[in-house]
TrEMBL record, chains A, B:
CDD domains xref list: 4HBT
Acyl-ACP thioesterase-like C-terminal domain boundaries: 149-242
Keywords, in A-Z order: Fatty acid biosynthesis, Fatty acid metabolism, Hydrolase, Lipid biosynthesis, Lipid metabolism, Transit peptide
The organism of origin for this protein: Enterococcus canintestini
Stored Pfam families: Acyl-ACP_TE, Acyl-ACP_TE_C
Highest classification ranks of the organism: Bacteria, Bacillati, Bacillota, Bacilli, Lactobacillales
Record-linked InterPro entries: Acyl-ACP_TE_C, Acyl-ACP_thioesterase_NHD, FATA/B, HotDog_dom_sf
Protein name: Acyl-ACP thioesterase
Highest taxon, organism lineage: Bacteria
GO molecular function, one term: fatty acyl-[ACP] hydrolase activity
Family: Belongs to the acyl-ACP thioesterase family.
Acyl-ACP thioesterase N-terminal hotdog domain boundaries: 4-131
Amino acid sequence: MAVKYSRNHEVAYYECDVNQTMTFPAMIGVAIKTSEEQSDALNRSAEFIHRFGLTWVITNYHFQIQRLPKVGEKIQITTQAMEYNKYFCYRNFWFHDEEGNELLMIESVFVLMDIENRKMASVPEEIIAPFESEKIKRIKRFKAIPKISAGKSLPYRVRFYDIDSNQHVNNAMYFNWMIDVLGFDFLTTHVPYEVNIRFDKEVEYGNEVMSHFEIVTDNGIESRHEIRIGEQLYCEANILWQTKELEK
Amino acid sequence: MAVKYSRNHEVAYYECDVNQTMTFPAMIGVAIKTSEEQSDALNRSAEFIHRFGLTWVITNYHFQIQRLPKVGEKIQITTQAMEYNKYFCYRNFWFHDEEGNELLMIESVFVLMDIENRKMASVPEEIIAPFESEKIKRIKRFKAIPKISAGKSLPYRVRFYDIDSNQHVNNAMYFNWMIDVLGFDFLTTHVPYEVNIRFDKEVEYGNEVMSHFEIVTDNGIESRHEIRIGEQLYCEANILWQTKELEK
């Protein structure tokens, strides 16, 4: 049974949007901070990983949201390294309210990248052992992300503050570009309940990305997203929404 | 003697830029959260103020920085409502490190705005009394902010996440636009030690602002900033910098 780690967090006003609920970048921020704290506690800090010439890269998130955390709310974030195979590490996050109700769950995929050649590296036992996650053979598949057939797009320049203290464009930023294109009216009348996102390639400082999107209403309300520079795909996602009146 | 209020904060990786130090939006975020907590503790929450048909607006910040807070560092933020006159409330913030050394100080000016007519309102005793700040007659003047003579500029669109749960463009965002124009090379070789900023007019969602700037090196290193839409000025600032080698 893998080791769980929890921390408490009070949702600040600056972590919330006009809906009074936490933004995706803020949720990812506190989630990743929780996993960093666990890694530090197990002596597997980013610095330790760097000694192997490696660094963690996140390739996927899958959110299942019952209710978004609200401004002022005290929440608990729990994380657990679930399973790993030769190349992929699967980590879950759970957000709970003060009464212990689950607010949301995030499944994620982490890989180790060789800092020199920027290629994916196999997972050394010495790095992964303290998390006591289960070694598996198979590769877990996340839901397919549907392509955009005919979308609109807006340009976004990567800003200085989009690069965090880990020296990379924080992948929480992709959410900023994907959410923004949907516009005020949509975003204040709809609530997300499922998100599937894949990071394909790393955007760099100074890049101008295009945030492409399409809203499909064949079967519920779905927004589809692609972050591209020219034809090159950097990130793709889809988000399932319900209207606010129907909110659980 | 006015009432002081303090809170502790651990600086998260997502609050820091590539220099491993806290961004201006993050510093303003935790400062304002501290003053909101004090107001709540004294039963003078935003909701209480709204009952008077009023809302707080910040018009000025003046930062004096000895050292920027670092990633992972445990800091303490203290605030105190210092003085007020008919229209202006003067509030200070101090950031200290774990050893009690002052990292930075922010002087600020708050005014009350009538929510209906969007005009400045005089400060009711009932709102201000619990803070036990000193009533003064004079208007405290902040340092003049020099105008730009011949600058460059970049455009920024106000994004959905730039509006916070207080329903306004968070004034911390202006820093995002002002800092970004200075570029990676400047920002990784210089450290700010004084900032003077004035908010003249409120930017709205959907606006595209121009972030004008000029670097003047007559007497030390100074960046001058103006956020404008066309000829209309929304925000002006100047920042004094030292090169990283000379950092205190």
